[in-house]
Design brief:
It is built from 27 helices and 17 strands. The strands form three sheets. Strands 9-10-12-13-14-15-16-17 form an eight-stranded mixed β-barrel, surrounded by four helices. The chain has a six-stranded mixed sheet with strand order 1-3-4-2-7-8, sandwiched between helices. Helix 5 packs antiparallel against helix 10. The protein has 737 residues and is of the alpha/beta class. The longest helix has 40 residues.
């Protein structure tokens, strides 16, 4: 027999034993023996259950077992008087044991209900008090007072007679507390509660029959016997191990219909009893009913005040939830806009909007779980970095807002500069250390009290900040024109791609010793039918923002590879050995970009070794998908060039983490190469780094013969710039060759 099912077997056997008790002659010795056997067995099984399941609170079970054993001793004494002495004294020594059992049972109930959070369960205590007072008053009127007022009985008889219903009244209070306490009860606790109910009902029924009817109370023995059985079953149930550790429900659990009806009935018992014939005219009963009515009124009043407080608290909680971002705990857009409205009425304000760069790429590459952790980490960093008076909100997605009431423009700019610097440190999200860039736009409320206008200005500044090196920008009216221009460009880009308005031009990369063109870099130009030639620094940001850079970049790649194959067919060994194509961070972040490159190479027939993909330091500094794409391209034989080398966050660190074949030294180092001092030292150091790592170094932006001569003296073998040839279309470059 499995120990988890013992309680079921005992429950079935106990119910059968109770049924067998009523098959025996009433009042006979055999029936009494069965009665005592059930009580003794129940007590023994309670002890067995404690040992079997290792109860966390054994004391409460020992109290119940002690109470039952005491009750059995009382039964044995009564049976001795009845069957041996042939007398039925009242009161007797048996009553001492019967009455002694009640404190033990009540002690067990108190131990059961003693919880660490009892102080927070005041509503349940008040409900229990209302039930106990209402039913206790009824108990007094119909049971206790008639016994106490019986002048035919001796004083001892009346004391003992009142002691039983008084003990029952205490049990009633315990039961009321037990069933009104918040929390979900285990099967063991439900069996215990049912046992107490059975005992209470039988005890009260026996008292009422003894007072108001000339009949035997043997029918109520079933309640006492079932209480024995249920107590033992509760102790044998496996859930008894955690009895007393009630699983708490949500705070402020609602009052169910049954509890509401019970509380209403108990509250009305006092006035109703006044209308019962023969009760309202009794002075003692009137005093008891009056006192109980006052007490019930105060309890109900306190309970109602608790309801009002609870409703107010829940309303406050709902308002807090409605005004807070669930993921980060920051204020949400609704609260921010309300606070901004209020602040604008009080005086000038500063507002900053912050947008994370490439957050979509984090979600796509690492999953939304990591993205959520990233947002939470950024939110916590914002809390720590900003003064307490600054309201920080998550406006949605990866956009955050900050309200700086009364701040001067310069102070707000300094705060945002420090914030941008703080965000440059990696953010830990699960097992990843993510370097996330952020663009911050700052705006004031000059000339307006419209919250949406202030937010619009900050939004315009935030998008303008995406093209800056320091990551933050203050709004000025000129940005509106730039924003409108970018919006128009974004709309016209789609037409330009479809209409073929873009052209690919090529700039030679030469060998300094021989002057021979050994590679070309593919560049794109937009020939607008009305605007004329639109420079890349104007349309590339718009293409990045709209996502068209992915489609445009694929077209540039396909065109450049096809042209490289055409040169090979026309020039043979004299054709440029490699073609370099710039790839944006947005392209690298696209899953499957390496497959796109492979497909283009297969389509055009260009060997992978004759293609160089140029990436910027900022595009691969945050690792993630961009670096994975670069590594995959390198494994497939495509050369990787690090463009604008020396101007990024940590150029030398990238050489350890990113597979690189070519370093393209930034033009800023070349411009001052002919000057004495530190300029030549930096250029020398860069070529030494390249040679030491076995990389090719290409000096960019060479514009004079002096620069070319000095670069060659320092050890550079390759260069590009206007000195060797401006970017030109393929046909022009072919003529030069």
């Amino acid at each position: 027999m499995h120990r988890s099912r013992i309680w079921q077997w005992w429950l079935a056997a106990g119910v059968l034993a109770v049924g067998g008790y009523y098959l025996l002659p009433s009042g006979g010795l055999a029936a009494q023996v069965v009665y005592d056997a059930i009580g003794v067995t129940s007590s023994a099984l309670i002890i067995t259950g404690v040992r079997l399941h290792r109860a966390s609170r054994p004391a409460l079970w020992y109290w119940f077992a002690a109470g039952q054993v005491t009750w059995v001793i009382g039964d044995l004494l009564w049976e001795y008087f009845k069957y041996v002495e042939h007398v039925e004294p009242y009161p007797s020594a048996a009553d001492i044991f019967y009455l002694s059992a009640y404190p033990m049972l009540i002690a067990g109930m108190l131990t059961l209900m003693r919880r660490r959070d009892a102080g927070r369960d005041l509503p349940a205590l008040i409900d229990a008090a209302i039930v106990a007072v209402g039913l206790g008053l009824t108990f007094w009127v119909f049971v206790m007072h008639p016994i106490a007022a019986d002048t035919t009985a001796s004083t001892v008889e009346r004391i003992v007679g009142v002691a039983y219903p008084a003990a029952d009244a205490l049990l009633l209070a315990m039961l009321a507390r037990f069933y009104t306490a918040a929390g979900r009860r285990s099967a063991s606790l439900r069996l215990l509660g049912l046992a107490m109910v059975c005992m209470f009902v039988s005890d009260v029924g026996y008292s009422l029959v003894s007072l108001y009817a000339d009949a035997e109370g043997g029918v109520f023995d079933a309640g006492f016997l079932l209480a024995y059985v249920l107590w033992a079953a509760a102790a044998l149930h496996p859930s008894m191990r955690d009895a007393g550790a009630v699983v708490p429900e949500r705070s402020g659990a609602r009052v169910g219909r049954s509890r509401f009806v019970l509380l209403a009935v108990c509250s009305l018992l006092a006035p109703v009893l006044l209308f019962v014939p023969g009760i309202g005219g009794d002075t003692v009963n009137r005093l008891a009913i009056g006192g109980a009515a006052v007490l019930l009124f105060l309890l109900v009043l306190r309970r109602m005040s608790g309801f009002v407080t609870q409703v107010q608290d829940q309303a406050d909680q709902l308002e807090d939830l409605a005004m807070a971002d669930e993921l980060t705990g920051l204020a949400n857009r609704r609260r921010f806009e309300q606070e901004l409205d209020t602040a604008l009425r009080a005086g000038p304000v500063e507002v900053a909007l912050l947008d994370l760069d490439d957050f979509k790429g984090v979600n796509d590459r690492l999953g939304h779980g990591v993205g959520d952790r990233l947002l939470s980490g950024v939110a916590e960093r914002l809390r720590r970095a900003l003064p307490p008076e600054v309201l920080v909100a998550r406006m949605g997605g990866d956009e955050f807002a900050m309200l700086l009431p009364g701040s001067a423009g310069a102070a707000a700019d300094q705060t945002m500069a420090r914030l941008a610097e703080t965000l440059r440190a990696p953010v830990v999200a699960q097992d990843y250390e993510l370097l996330v860039g952020a663009s911050i736009g700052v705006a004031d409320s000059a000339g307006t009290t419209d919250a949406y206008e202030v937010l619009r200005r900050a939004d315009v500044a935030m998008y303008a900040a995406k093209g800056t090196t320091d990551g933050h920008r203050r709004y000025h009216p000129g940005l509106d024109q730039i924003g409108e221009e970018q919006a128009r460009l974004g709309a016209e880009l789609r037409t330009a791609v479809d209409a073929g308005q873009f052209r690919v031009i090529y700039q030679p990369i030469v060998e300094l010793g021989s002057g021979r063109t050994i590679a070309v870099e593919a560049l794109v130009r937009w020939h607008h039918p009305e605007r004329g030639l639109v420079p890349p620094d104007r349309f590339i940001p718009a293409a990045e923002r709209t996502g068209l850079i992915v489609e445009l970049g694929a077209w540039i790649l396909r065109t450049a590879c096809a042209q490289a194959m055409a040169w090979i067919a026309q020039l043979g060994d004299a054709a440029p050995h490699r073609v370099s194509v710039n790839v944006s961070a947005r392209q690298l972040a696209e899953p499957g970009f390496a497959d796109v490159v492979s497909a283009v190479l297969a389509e055009t027939g260009l060997p992978p070794g004759r293609l160089t993909v140029e990436v910027t330091e900022t595009a691969v500094f945050g690792r993630g998908q961009a670096v994975q794409t670069v590594e995959e391209l390198h494994r497939r034989g495509v050369a990787i060039a690090l463009d604008d080398f020396g101007t990024g966050h940590s150029s030398l660190t990238l050489l350890q983490t990113v597979p690189v074949d070519v370093l393209k030294v930034d033009k800023s180092f070349v411009d001052t190469i002919t000057m004495a001092g530190r300029h030549a030292v930096i250029a020398t150091a860069l070529i030494q780094v390249a040679d030491g790592l076995g990389l090719a170094a290409v000096a960019e932006g060479v514009e004079t013969a002096e620069q070319a001569t000095e670069l060659r003296r320092l050890g550079y073998r390759y260069a590009q710039g206007f000195h060797f040839g401006r970017p030109a279309e393929a046909s022009v470059l072919l003529q030069r060759a």
